[in-house]
Every structure is written in C-alpha cells, then in structure tokens.
Amino acid sequence: MAAIYSGIYPKLKSAKTSWEDKLKLAHFAWISHQCVIPNKEQVLLDWVSHALVSYYNKKPELEDEVVDKLWAYLDNVIHSRRLQNLLKSGKTIGLSFSVAQVINERLSEAFSQKTQQNLGTVLSCSSGILSTPSLSIIYTAKCELLVDLLSKLSKLACQQLASDNTVGSEVFSVLQLTFAQYLLIQRQQTNPNRVFGQVTSHLLQPCLLLRHLLTVRSWTQADDNHVRQHLSKEIRNQVETLLQAGLFQPELFSSYKEELLPEQEFQEKKKGALKSLLLPVNTVQTRLASGFCEPAIHGAVVAGSVSLLYKLFLDSYCKAENHLVCFHMLSRLFGCLRLSGLQQEAREDTLSPADWSTELVALEQLLNLVLSSDVYNVASDRIRHKEIQFVFYRKLAQMLMSHSQASVPAWFRCLKLLVSLNHLIVEPDLDDLVASAWIDAEVSEPRTKKPQESLISTMFQTYSKLRQFPRLFEEVLTVICRPAADELRLPVFSAGLTAKLRECLLELPPNQILDILCLFVEKCQTLIVPAVEGSADMALKLLSVSSVLHAFLFNMRSLDDVTPSPVVLRTQSLLAKMQKGIIQPLMELLQAPRRQEEKPDLWLRKASDSALLLVYTWIEVDTLFGVSCSKYVSPAAEIAGVVSASAARHGGISAFLPGAEEQSWERVMELANSFTSTSKYCLELLTLQKMKMILMQTKADLQALQHAAAFIVESGRSSMSRRESEPWDGDITAISDLTYPTAHWHLVISNLTILLPYMSLKDVEYIANMLLETLVLAKAQEADTDTESSISIGKISLGLMQSSFLPEMKVLHCAFLTSLIHQFAKVLPSAARDSVDLPLQQLSAGNIPWHEEILAACRHVDLLEASSENKPLKNELSLSWKTLEKVAQCIILLVKNGCPVMLKESQLERFLGLLEIASLLKLDGLLPSDCTRCFLVLLSLLANTRASVSCSKPLLLKFLSTCCHLLRCLQAGRNANSVFKVFHASDILEAVMTSQLTASKFFTDILTVPVWAQYLQEVQDFLEDFLQVIIERRQSVKLNLEKFMSFLVSCKPDVGAAKSRGCKNWNPAAGQLLLMAFTTLCHVVTLYLQQLPEKKLQSVDVASALLEPVVLQMVRTVEHGLQSNTQNQPLPVAFIPSVTTLLKADLSYAVKKSCQIELSGFLEQPRIKLYQKFYSQILRELPCAGGNLQFLQSALQFLTVFCSVPELYPGKETAVTVVFAMKKLLTDPAVTTQVIRTMEAELTEVLVQLLGNCSAEEFYAIMRLVLQGLEMRNVWQQNAKEVLSAVTLTKLLLSCPISGDKEKAFWFASPQIITALAMQTKEACQDQSLIPTIVIPILETVAALLRQGEGVLLNPHHVALAFTILLTVPLDRLKTEDYRGVFLGVHEVLFSIVQCHPKVLLKATPSFLNSFHRLVVSVMHEGRQKGDRGNTDEFEVILKCAHLVERMYTHIAAEMEDFTVFSAFIVAQYVTELQKVTLHPAVKKHLTEGIYHILDLCIERDIKFLNASLPAGVREVFKDLYSDYNHYHKAKKQGEEKYTA
Fold first, then answer.
1. How does DSSP assign 429-444, residue by residue?
2. Which residues, in sequence order, are CB contacts of 372 under 8 Å at separation 6+?
C-alpha cells in the first residue's frame, strides 16, 4: 500500500494538478501513516512555504480561497500534535527565513491597508512558530526579522486600541509571545550600541504609543477579559523591560555622560579619549519629537513617555556620584514637553485645559522621581555646581506662578514637590503662591481641593519646622489686604487645613503664635475696622482676618499653670487689645440705629458675621484660659461673677463681655438674627456657652437654662421648616443661607445632652418630628449624597439614630416613636384615615400621655410641672395601657372579621421606608409601653393591611418579611413580655397566620423566586422565636400551644371556599405556609421534649400528647402537597425540611417512650413509606441538583437523619447506595469547588451517619468506589469531575470518626491513595484549567491525610510522596485566586509534615527545602515592585502568602534544631533570589523578618562562608541584609534577652 501513495510528491510539484487536489493530497499525506515520502514532514512544510512565498513574489496567480487554504494548512501543520511529538523525539524540522518575511509583510499590509484577510490565520501561524523552538529559529537567528515582527505587531495592536471596535486577544497574545522572545534575544546581545540602534530605530515609537494606548483605553465588558485584566499589564511591563535593557545598558552610561555633562565638567574624566559618535539623548529626543502618531495625541504620548524614560534612566544609573548626570537628563527630557516652550514666553493659549493637565502630570512625575531618588542635594548643588539645579527649579516655579492653573490638581502637586525640594525655590514668589494657590484660588471640586490642601499643609509644615511661620502669615495678611480678586472669597481655612494648622501650632513656640496674632489684630485695628462701614470689600477682608484669628485662638495650645508668666501677660494684653480695638468698635457700628424697611447691605452682613465670630471666640477662649490657668486674669474680671437673673433671662450675653450694654446687645442680636449666616450661628453658640457657664455655678438658674434652650431651638426653626439645605464642611465662616440649617441642626443634635433636660415637651416633639423628616428625606436623596467628609442634615440624623445616646434620652426616644406612628397613620388611604377605630389611628391620637412612663421613672424638678398638675399620674399611666388593650382587641377583631385596609404600591413603598427607619431604633431598649406600641403597629401592618391586585408581588413580600423581622427584633428585647399584658400569645400567632394564609393566594405564581424563600424563612423565624418565648415563660404553655395547633388543623389551604377532598383547589403557597407552621411547631415541641429531664414524666407525657396530633396533621399536609405535585416533578424544596422535622419528631418521641430497640416497629407503616418515598426521590434527584444549593442543603439534612436509622432503608439498599448518589452529585458540572466548600459540613454529617452505622463489608465497597475515581484512566479520558468527586470523598472520609476494622481498612489503602494523588497531580498540572478543580483539592486532601496519619503512616516513603506532589505543582503564571489556593495548599502540606512527621523530614530535608524555596521564590516574583500595583485584593493575597513564609521561617528557627546546619544554605538561596527582584516594601518586611530568624541560627563560620562563596552581586545584597539584621533585629533581640528571666 505504501508504494501506491509514494507518488504524491511529484503531483504536488506538478503544474497540471489543480490547487484543490494539491491541498487534499497534502492534507492526506500529513495525516496518513500509509503515505511514505522521505523526510515527509519537512517536505510538506517546504512545499506549503514555497507555495506561499511564490504567490507573494507574484509568480503564480492564485485565487483568494486557495491562499486562505494554504495559510490554514500551514497553521494546522505547525499546531499539530504530530509535529510536536516529532520535535520532542529529536527530529530536526525547520522553516525558511522567507516565511518570516512573508508573515511580516502580511502584518504590515493589515496595518497599512486595514485588511483583515488571513490575519487570524497568519497570527496563529506566527504564534505557533514563536512557541516552537526549532521553528522560531527563523526569527531568533535573524534578529532584524524579529524586531520587524515586533514593530508590526505593536502597530497593529495600537490600531485596534485606537479604534472604537472591541479588542480581541489574537494580536495581543502573539504580541506578548513576541516580546518574550525578543527580550530573551536582547539579553544575549553583546553589542549594546547595536541593541540601542535597533530599539530607537524600530521599536521606541510603537512601544511608547502602545503603552500609552493600553494605559488610557476605557475598557468595556465587550473587550476580551484576558487582554483587559492580564495581557495589558503584562505587555506594559514587557515594554518597560525592553526599553530599560535597550536604551539604558551600563555600557552606554559613558555615552550619556559625555553628551549630558558640560564640556568643562567632563574634560577631567575624559583623559584625552576621542568623543563617542553615539548621542543617545539626542537620538531619543529626535524620535520623541518626530510625528509617529496622530497629532491630537502626540503631546499626551510624549508626556507619558518622558516620565517613564526618566524613571528607567534613574533605575539604571542613579548613584550618588551620578546625580549631576541625572539632573541634566531631567532638563533634556523636560525640553520634550510643551511646557518648556512657556519658559521662553510662548503663547499660553496654545495649551487647552486638557493639555495643561497632561503636561503638568508629566512634570509632577518627573519631580516626584527627583525627590524620591535624591537627585537634588541643596548643599552639593550650591558648593560644587554653582546652583545649576536651583536655577532650573526656580525657572520652573516662575513658569508655574506666571501661568496659574488652579483648576488642574497636578499644578498644586508640582508646587508642593518644589516646596519639598527646597522652600527657597518658591520663596521669592511666596506672595503670588499664597494668592494664586490659596487665598484667591477658586477651588470647589474635591479632586482639586485635596491637592490644594496638601500643598498648603506642606507649606505649614515646612515653615513651622524652619520657625518661619510669622513670615508665611505676613504674606497671607498682605494678600488678604489686597483688593479682593473676587467679590466673595472662599474661606481661608477648610476643615483639613484647620487640622494641619492645629498640628503645627502645637509644635510652635507660643511667642511666634502671639507675633502672628498681634500682627493680624494690629492690621485689623488700624486699617480694616475704621474703613469697614459701607465698604463690602473691607467687610470681606474683615471676615477673612476674623477667621484667621478664630482658627489660631481655637487651635493653639491653651494656657495652663506651667505657661511662662510673660506669655500669659502677653496673651492677656492681646485679648484686651482685641476687645477694645476690634470688638468694641464693631459692636458700636452694629448698634447704630437703621430704618426697619432698609435692606441690609453686604458689608453689614459680613461685619455682623465678623463681630459675632470674634465675640464668640473671645468669650470661649477667655473662659478656657480662666479655667485652665490660675495666673491668667480676664479683661472681664471686674464684672465677672454670678450673672444677674434679668440678664440671663433676656439672653444676656453682654454680661460676659466687657463694655457691652444689655440694651445695645439686644439691637446687635436683632440684627444678627435677621441673617441666616455665621452671625446667627454664633448667637446660638454664645447661648450654649452661657448655658455651660450657668451650669458651672454652684446654683443653676433653671429658668435661664430653659429660656436659653428654647432660644437655640427656636433660632433655626424657620430655616429648618423651609426644607432647603446643603452640606456643610464644618467651617464656621462658610455658613450661608443654605448651609445654616445644617450647621444649626449639627449644633442642636451634638449638644442634646445639655439641651434636652431644659426643653419643653413641645420642643422635644419638634426635635423628634424634625429627626424623622430629615431621615425620610435622607433616604429619598440617598443616591445624590456627597460621599466626601462634609456634614449633611441626613448624616447628622442618621448618626444620632445609630448612636448609643438616643436610647438613653428616654423622652426623645418616646417622642420619636410617637412621631413615627403618626407618619404610619398618615400613609393610610384617606378613607382609612377618617376612621378613628383603626389601630394606627387610635395609637396616633394626640390626647394620650405616652411620655408619662418616663417622667414617672425619672422626673426632673419643675419640668412640665404645669402639664402634670391636671391629672394624677396613676390615671394617665392606666389611660395609656387601656388604649393599648383596646388597640390589641381591635387588631384581633379586624383579623377575624376579615376587614383589611387596601394599600397601593406607592403606600407600600412609603411603609417600607418608615419600617427601615424603625429598624434603626434600638428596639431592645424600648420601655414596656413603647415596646407594646411598636409591636401593635407592626402587627397591625402585618395583619390588618392587604395590597391591591396591581401591586408588585416581590415588593409586598419584602414588606411582610420586614414586618416579621422587626417583630422578631422586638421579641429579643428586655421588655418583650409587656406585650402579653394586652394579648394572649395564641391570639398573636393566630392573627399572623390568618393574615398570611389569606395573603398567600397572591403568591402562587412566584413560589420559585428567592424573595418567597426569604419571606417563608422570616415567618418561620418569627414563629419559632415566639413559640420558644411561650415555652420559656411557662405560663399557660399547654393552653397556648393547643389553641394554636387546633387553629392550624382547622385551616384549609385551598384557593376558594370549596371543601373538595381533591387537589384541584389546593393553594400551593398556603400549603407551604401551613406546612412551615406545622414544621416549626413540631420542631419547637421536639426540642422542648428532648431538653426535659427524665424525672418530669408528667411534662413528657403532656408534650408527647401535644406532639402526636401535630405529627399526624403534618403527615396529612405533606401527603396532600405531594398529591398536588405533578408526576415526575422535582420535590418542592419547602417540603424537605418539614419531613426532616417530622422524622426527628418521630425518632425523639420513640426515644422518650423507650422504644430505641425497635424504632421501625414504633413508626406506623404509612409513615415509613412516606420517609422511604422521600429518600428514594431525593436519591434520584441528587445527582442532577448541583445548581440548586437550597435543595441540596435540605436534602442532605434529611439524609443525615434518615441514615441514622439503617432499618429505614427500602429494599436491599445500603449506605453504599447513598455514597454512590453523593459521588454522582459531585461529578455534576454545576457542582464547582465553591459549591463543595459551601456544602462540606452537610456532606460530612451524612458520611458520619453512614460510616457510623454501616457494616465493614459496606465500608470496603465505599473505599472501592473512592479508589475507582482515583484511577488514571479518568484523567486520560478527560473525566476530571470523576477525579474531583473521589478526591472530595477522600477528604470527607478523613473528617469522619472511624474505628476498628473500618479504620484499618482505610489506612491500609492510604499508600494507594497517596500514590494515586501524586500521579493525578502530575497529569493535572499539564493543563492550566485543572489547577483550581483538581490540584488545589488534592493539596488540601494530602494535608488532611498527613495530619490524620500521624503515628499511622509509618512508611517514610509514603510520606515522602507528598514532596513529589509539591515539586510538581506550578506556582507561576497563575490567576490570583488559583495562586492563593495553590500556595495555601502547598504550605499546609509542608506544615503537616513538619508538625506530624518530623522523622521523615530529617531524611527528606533537601526535598523539604526545595519545596519551601519554591514558595519563597514565587512570593518574591509575585510581590515584586510594579509600576501599576493593580487590584488591592490581589496584593492582599500576596501579603498573606508572604506572612505565611515568615511564619515558616520562624517555625524552622524555633522548633527544628536539626536545620541549624542548613541555615547558611537557606540564607544563600534567599539572597540569590532577592538580588533578581525589587520587592514591594510590605512584602519585603515579612520576608526580611522571617530570614532574620534563620540568621539567628548562623554562627560566625557560616557568615564568613557566605561572604567568601557568594557571587559579587549577591554578596552585596547579603552584606546589606546582614548589616540591617545586626542593626535592627539582633540589637532588639539582645535587648529583650537582657530583661528575660
């Protein structure tokens, strides 16, 4: 036969044979073993290569279809398993270089002509060639072809990224492969000049453009996930590696130095050598300047590239002696930016705002690199280099100041970096900097505000360290006193700046602070106050100066008894001067009479704000100094003392301020009250301060306190009622009409502990109403809220609700609940609102004194005396409880009569909103009457309302679930039993179940929706908790349970009124509800029965008598439900827990009746059949139920109970049948490793019961099942799920307690198991997709096997097999979640060997060290420093792994003395790897701490050995490590040992 096909080759070469036939013959020749051609594979490759090359050289004319088939044939051959096997066997097969040229030309064509013909196949061919070493030689032998391929692919990738089309993975995966191949070749090149030429000529521009487009692309879900998450980062890293190795090799440094250093600098070092012709910087600049991309993005590409190139340059050459070269490189690269043109006074308008942002970000990155690498040394630059760097940075600062860009965040960051480099760089322009970057800067966006605050904070820090704070604030004062750039300047200090100012003021000497304050007071007194009348500009300046004075006085260190006397005297003088020179003139100005109809001017408003702010500041500071410093004498001392009653009564703040008359002060108050701004807020603060001062006196004036509290509340009432407010940043000078309500509410809520005892009941009710309104508004505007640190009314109210203070404020708590109930009543339909008999209307009646219970418990002197005189307290208390009893009866009556209130969807939504607010209350802290009120409201909503037909069913279920949940929360409270004062327990249960059964008819079509299951669970939890309470109370337990049971028995879960015994009227929703109620009752009574002591036989009989009818009724309900279930339909999930509970109840009943000997004899035959039917159905459904987690958990719980009684198995079935079903379940594709982890506890419980009750023969059969799954044929047949099921069962078996023959059988098979696991691992590791599904579970199982096998696995060879597994498992190129799983698995196996098999470890030390070293290397590789650190969660995984490595090092050092001899070897391995990477600091910290413990084991001889034997570069790394070890770790250890007993 072979001879027949030997003539194929001439036919392939013949011109007469058609191309269709040639292709068929070639395909046949490749796959057929019967076709014999000498060197057939090479011949066929040469034929197809020649055909393609000839076509593209324009020799034969071929149709496009034929060309496509030729490319497809070449692709199939290259990727065929046959070719790969031949190459593995050592056969030499190659391609011609012309194929590489053709591929490159096709890619060039695809880029230039944008044609996609053959592109996918061509890319696939190049991918196959590059990944096959013997074929890739056509590129690696001719580096020019590889460079050309890389350039073409980069351009093609750029074209894809720049278009609007979705990005696929074809181009990028080949590109990544090509980069890897080129980087390998690049490292092998010996001529750095040649490499530099290749990179700059062909690769620099496309690589920089590619990196830019990968960085700025807005990825979408349509783009390939692998490209988006992995390849894009990998390629960016490869670009950086390529540029670093190509442009900045160590051998090129002399060329850079020669080109960059000025002639005279380099002359000494040149020693007469000829200048090199290579000008690397000039070459790079030229390539950056030439137009290699669209003009629209050229500037952005260059800006992003400049910082990258400078970073790579510094990484290669930055040493102390090269800092000047590094600086000159900076200046040359800065010249590539468009910003450099502005230094030559080019036109500013050539740069758009977007361009400014891009350019400034690039400049920021350059300056950041200079700062972090210490390129600029101030002293060295001044002494050695004539301030060449300083001059450059000065020009930069001047350029930035002359082109202010306050809307660009990077502008602030650049200035901050210049200040950090040397404050003298910006010192000459300090006034302009203060003006344009701070005082006059129009900054409102948070993203710009943050860098602005950072810049000013840096200036604060710098000038405070230099003790030049007064110099900085001289400029601030100068800028403030200039004509305002804008009519309304922004406040001087934001909340962030105030915090930074506080830090600096605490470090400054007091005299410097007083210098600044005196400067401001003097300027204000002499220049501003005299000219403020009628001048808005001066009034604005006054407010700015006042805010600075307020900030300094409030944040400086307070005077105390250790403050030097001169400082105290100077402070007294300053406050006196401030009072007489500023406050008094301003007060006189504000007291001047004005016409009532005259509208106040801006100057008057700002002057009022300033005056009140200074008065408040002065009084607050004066009071504080008086309290904290005995040497301080207040300027107000002559009138200090007890405040007169009349002054206090009229809000007499004047009494605390020297020189202020009461009548004049009232005019000022009247004026200030007319503005909703700073002045009005300051009046409230002053009133609060007055309250504090009164409370500090020996006898407090109660009437004055009540007036003050009323004034503060009343002050903001009109503003709050307008419902218009904006967030406030906490700055007292930034209060406007819209932020005043927020500031007022913040003041009231944060000082409630002071105000509340002195408020009238009406004010308390007002506060409660406002609290509720603001919470409702906050919920409505939740999506629009500002996430920044600003304060909003909603946040304040929410903060109070979530705090622990509200339950302590009993009156407010009670008033808030009353207000909430009023809101519930308002939501009812208008017809219902008119009915005074409805529960909600009765509870919201205004004539019931709900608060009296609080006042009775804790009654303040004279509080609400007038209102409490009318009726005796006892009558009022009884009135509130009578009302509650009446409401309770009303709820029960409405349920029995079936008269619900119909609700629309909008009303349901509003109820849900109010219920959400109710859930914020600390329900367990309510008083008895409030607890009962709350319970009645919730019960009324649950039992007395119905949704209209048009309502959303999921919404209604959510409403009902929320009511049940809140009722449960109330039951957990300490006053939960107060409900039983107005209700019988059985009435509550009956009301709930009646209403829910009636409502269930709406839900028949959504029984499979998750929200239905959640609702059922909430109702069940409520019933269970409530029944538990009935039992625990021990009051009428039997009566209540019997009543509830008889009610349930009487329920008919049908749709209409039909009483048919058939199933057509069965309502499945009502059936599930009823079954759930029976299940819950049965479960609670069963638990009660189990917990009763044996002595209480009477109670046992009572409970058993109660349980029996419940069980019987449950059986009927389940059977009815099953009859309505369609044939071959899966079991309803709701039935399974019910049958499980039923079986538990039966078994419990049997045990209590002492029938353990024959349980099956006790159970009735129909009952056994029911359980067996369920068992059989569950086993049938189990293997294909992987996607239904709820069913699985319920089914496994049933099997756990069922299998505990082996007599219940139907027919000849045994435990093996159940294990077989579990094994089939685990092979279901829907059962992932995540699902297995979720079900692990349930699976283990089933196995515990099975193994505990099965015979030895059955156990042997189970072991055979497991071992069959571990056979190698499964993985060869790609049946990975079979292997996973066997591995999982092995792991579960290890969790089960077994003994006797079963235990012996298991451990007898363990060598076979561990050998099979090792072989499975070896095969699975060849397929990346099997890592999470096979390899990680095997590692977890091996770790468990080794732990359980302590003292049992005696053969060291079997334990050592675990090392084979560990050395096979890959630790690189894994997804983060896979890496985490593999790492933890390997670590657990190692730790199990260390802890449980120390003798084996001693014999297999090399294997242990190799396995552990692989972990260390992988952590170093994953934890290396990257430009883009990426996902925080990913990094957390790396940190955890590094921490585990540290723990293992520590354990080795502490517990394993025999490892001392290997300590030097471990250290050598560590430093060898460390030299290859730059670790992230957090990762390095963990690894370094670990290796320090190993160094503790090293003796002097080991250190000498390491210093002598390590290679040069590694030795340097070791020396640094050992130096740090001696400096930090060893010294600390010796210090600890010194104090250790």
1. GHHHHHIIIIIS----
2. none
The DSSP output letter for 1157 is G
Q: How far apart are CA 281 and CA 306, in angstroms?
A: 12
CB atoms within 10 A of CB 48: 25
Q: Report in angstroms the alpha-carbon separations of 51 from 54, 108, 139, 344, 611.
A: 5, 20, 20, 61, 95
How confident is the model over 1270-1317, as pLDDT tens digits?
A: 888 888 887 888 898 999 999 999 888 888 888 889 889 888 999 999
Pairing of strands 945-947, 901-903: parallel
Report how far residue 1128's alpha carbon sits from residue 1184's, in angstroms, rounded to the nearest whole number: 14
* Tokens linked to 681: 């807020």
| 658-676 average pLDDT score | 71
By the 10 Å C-beta count (0-12 exposed, 13-18 middle, 19+ buried), 327 is classed as buried
- Contacts by residues 782-788 (CB-CB < 8 Å, ≥ 24 positions apart): 786/727, 788/446
Considering only the C-alpha atoms of the chain, give the largest distance between any 2 of them, rounded to a whole number of Å.
129
Both structure tokens of 1204 = 């505990």
Indicate the DSSP class of residue 1479.
Answer: B
Identify whether the C-beta of residue 1178 lies closer than 8 Å to the C-beta of residue 1196: no
Q: What is the pLDDT of residues 450-508, one digit of tens each?
A: 999 999 999 999 999 999 999 999 999 999 988 765 556 788 888 889 999 999 999 99
Amino acid at 158: C
SS3 category, 1424:
strand
Distance CA 1486, CA 729 (A): 40
Residue with tokens 């009314």: 793
Contacts of 378 (CB under 8 A, 6+ apart): 390, 422
Element (H, E) at 764: helix 761-780
Average pLDDT over residues 233-248: 90
Pull the structure tokens for residue 1493. Answer: 């413990």
> Cα 1117 to the chain's mean position, in Å?
47
**CA 1142 to chain CA mean position, Å:** 44
Nearest Cα neighbor of 616 from 558, 560, 566, 678 is: 678
Closest CA relative to residue 1280, chosen from 1362, 1335, 1238, 1339: 1335
Closest of 445, 446, 314 to residue 374, by C-alpha = 314
Torsion of CA 708, 712, 713, 719, to 10 degrees: 150
The alpha carbon torsion through 593, 595, 599, 603 (nearest 10 deg) reads -20
Which pair of structure tokens corresponds to residue 536?
């808005």
Candidates 492, 612, 476; CA nearest to 544 is 492
Contacts with 1217 (C-beta within 8 Å, 6 or more apart), sequence order: 1179, 1209
Q: Which two tokens stand for residue 425?
A: 């760089």
75 φ, ψ to 5°? Answer: -65, -45
Closest residue by Cα to residue 199 from 231, 258, 241:
241
CA distance 1238 to 1193: 9
Neighbouring-strand partners of residue 1266: none
Give dist(CA 1423, CA 1429) in Å, integer: 10
In order, the DSSP letters of 1217-1267 are HHHHHHHHHHTSTT--HHHHHHHHHHHHHHHHHHHHHS-HHHHHHHHHHHH
- 3-class DSSP state for residue 902? strand
Residues belonging to the chain: 1541
Q: Please list, in sequence order, all residues whose beta carbon lies within 8 angstroms of the beta carbon of residue 84, skipping any fewer than 6 positions away.
A: 132
Could you count the other beta carbons within 10 Å of the beta carbon of residue 832?
18
Task: Name the residue with tokens 């390849």.
Answer: 231
Distance CA 1351, CA 1395 (A): 12
HEC string for 556-624: CCCCCCCCCHHHHHHHHHHHHHHHHHHHHHHHHHHHCCCCCCCCCCHHHHHHHHHHHHHHHHHHHHHHH
DSSP string, 1037-1098: HHHHHHHHHHHHHH---BSSS---SSSTTB-HHHHHHHHHHHHHHHHHHHHHHHHS-TT-HH
Could you tell me the pLDDT band of residue 1106, with boundaries at 50, 70 and 90? low
